[in-house]
């Protein structure tokens, strides 16, 4: 059976018929307008939702400064006696209470370091402190084998105040002495500094440093604690890892201020760095750490009564 072919569509419609293209063009314009309006509405809702969850540039959490500073000291209660640990904690607590600060005393073994040396605990502890005290302005890491000696000095004024930093910063200086080709920035301003650190005779000294709370500090600590650096088996573990990332990550170097060692990190002896002098904010017992815990306790006794007297008389 054969079927008739369908009639062909004429390409020459009669003049009296309305143009068939006018109506679709109007409809297309209208549909495009509706689509654009819908897209704009969806975008607006997305941006509002995104910002409300803390992702927007203007909704970033701004610390209230309560407390102004958190003093972080990692304690090793296995190697050191209870009397020594109690003396260290008493020192930190008295200093913090005087200025409205908070103390944070995590312990060796609190965190899973994935078989890395225990000294890496300090890096995780600092990151933990930022989470535990989201409204603090600064966190000060001070090694266990040390004492705060001058209760009058406040971190926010003595170290982190912009005008003070302008005077303290060591600019255009090798990051790792004596001849590192990477140097501290010569144009860095005090208001742009988020990380204050010192050097001793051997290199960077990570036993006492100050961080400004914020997204950059979190990024820095998480970079420092990266599994890759922990796997490198550096001789000085986290300290040599720090030297590596400071030299090869401009984003970190751009926020770093090196200051004179005695500003926050005086040593009890001059064999490895700047020796403590009366009036310095803190003293660290670095030589004893290469010996044993008893050596640190013995050395600390020379300064225990001195800090208590200074706190009593201030």
UniProtKB/TrEMBL annotation:
Source superkingdom: Eukaryota
Residues annotated as transmembrane: 33-52
Keywords assigned: Glycosyltransferase, Membrane, Transferase, Transmembrane, Transmembrane helix
GO cellular component, as recorded: mannan polymerase complex
Gene Ontology MF term list: alpha-1,6-mannosyltransferase activity
A GO BP annotation: protein N-linked glycosylation
InterPro entries tied to this protein: Glyco_trans_34, Nucleotide-diphossugar_trans
Family under the similarity heading: Belongs to the glycosyltransferase 34 family.
Name of the featured protein: Galactosyl transferase GMA12/MNN10 family-domain-containing protein
């Amino acid at each position: 059976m054969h079927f008739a072919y369908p009639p062909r569509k004429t390409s020459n419609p009669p003049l009296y018929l309305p143009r068939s293209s006018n109506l679709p063009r109007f409809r297309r314009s209208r549909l495009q307008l509706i689509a654009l309006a819908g897209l704009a509405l969806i975008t607006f809702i997305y941006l509002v939702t995104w910002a409300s969850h803390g992702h927007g540039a203007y909704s970033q959490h701004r610390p209230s400064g309560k407390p102004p500073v958190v003093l972080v000291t990692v304690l090793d209660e296995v190697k050191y006696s209870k009397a020594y640990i109690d003396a260290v904690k008493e020192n930190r607590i008295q200093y913090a209470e005087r200025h409205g600060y908070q103390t944070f005393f995590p312990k060796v073994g609190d965190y899973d370091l994935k078989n890395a040396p225990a000294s890496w605990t300090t890096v995780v502890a600092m990151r933990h402190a930022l989470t535990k005290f989201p409204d603090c302005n600064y966190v000060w890491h001070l090694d266990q084998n040390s004492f705060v000696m001058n209760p009058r000095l406040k971190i926010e004024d003595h170290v982190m105040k912009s005008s003070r930093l302008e005077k303290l910063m060591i600019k255009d200086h090798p990051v790792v002495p004596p001849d590192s080709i990477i140097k501290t920035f010569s144009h860095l301003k005090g208001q742009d500094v988020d990380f204050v650190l010192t050097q001793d005779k051997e290199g960077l000294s990570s036993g006492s440093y100050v961080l400004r709370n914020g997204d950059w500090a979190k990024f820095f600590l998480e970079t420092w604690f990266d599994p890759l650096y922990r796997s490198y088996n550096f001789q000085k573990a986290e300290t040599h890892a720090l030297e590596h990332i400071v030299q090869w990550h401009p984003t970190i170097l751009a926020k770093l201020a090196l200051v004179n060692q005695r500003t926050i990190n005086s040593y009890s002896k001059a064999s490895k760095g700047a020796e403590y002098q009366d009036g310095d904010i803190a003293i660290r017992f670095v030589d004893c750490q290469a010996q044993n815990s008893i050596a640190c306790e013995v050395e600390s006794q020379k300064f225990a009564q001195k800090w208590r007297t200074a706190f009593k008389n201030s």
